[in-house]
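Before going further, it is useful to explain how the protein records used in this thesis are read. An example of such a record is reproduced below.

***
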Amino acid sequence: MTDVTVIGCGVSGLSSAIRLQEAGFSVGIVSRELPPHTTSDVAGAIWHPISAENLPNGLRWAAECREELLRLVDEPGSGVQMIQLLEPVEEGKEGERWQALLDDLRTVPEDELPLGYTGGFRYTVPLIETPIYMAYLVRRFQANGGEIQQALVSTLQKYTGADRLVVNCTGAWAGKLTGDSRVFPIRGQILRLPPQPQVTRAFMSHGGPLGFTYIFPRSQDCLLGGTSEAGSWSVRPNDATSAAIRGRCASVDRSLADAEVIDVRVGLRPGRDEVRLELEETASGPVIHNYGHSGIGHTLAWGCANDVARIARERFG
């Protein structure tokens, strides 16, 4: 049985590791950060393939991931639930291809939208409560015999070999590890509020007057976001950014204007012009790269993991 080392313990690393286990491989994970301290834990995660249609395999990955998330809705302790989302859109953004994957898409009249928007949609999507979900993935991996080691990985060659496989899921740090100049950080900042019972639907905009703004009510908290700051490596919360997030969200729902903030968190998404998912035959052994998911890692994770397992099976036959 081929031994596999997955580098990275975010959602891409854990999903890939689980699919490799299911394909019959013996898998271990080595990572600089472990849940609950990964970028994937910080994410305000819903299934939303807004940029997937620009990727060669993006819509297929998103559809395959949605299938797994829908299955997990019925699995106790997974942290996945269905929620109705309101999304106002900029003029000209109506009818994007990924919306064909939705079951209940409907248009929203202008009088139900925030000021400045003339078009929008309501639909139901999987909401991923990352503190619960990431812990669930860790348990699922370990229940299959997987071991996780926390260590700083400065070179992939330490883990490669002719009969060994490395899977590189190092996110925003993949560029430094592999010399890939196309990778860059995308800084995201969120506010965590206590649960807000009055907020029963999710909200998200990606443009227009509110820019990138979201409100995700969860069982243990309510997330307000967000930011998308390309090129910034800063993980320190910024007070001015928090105030701006609060103001945008309060303009959508006034009940959030004075709500208590229990935490401010920052994560660095792995930006890249397209996902790198491919086998590289290095001088010291095979490496499958799986990084560069930008802001839709939770939306693509299981689809990409399926491809990782397929490539591994083909390589080691």
In short: The chain has a mean pLDDT of 95. Residues 297-316 form the longest helix (20 residues). The radius of gyration is 19 Å. The longest strand covers residues 80-89.
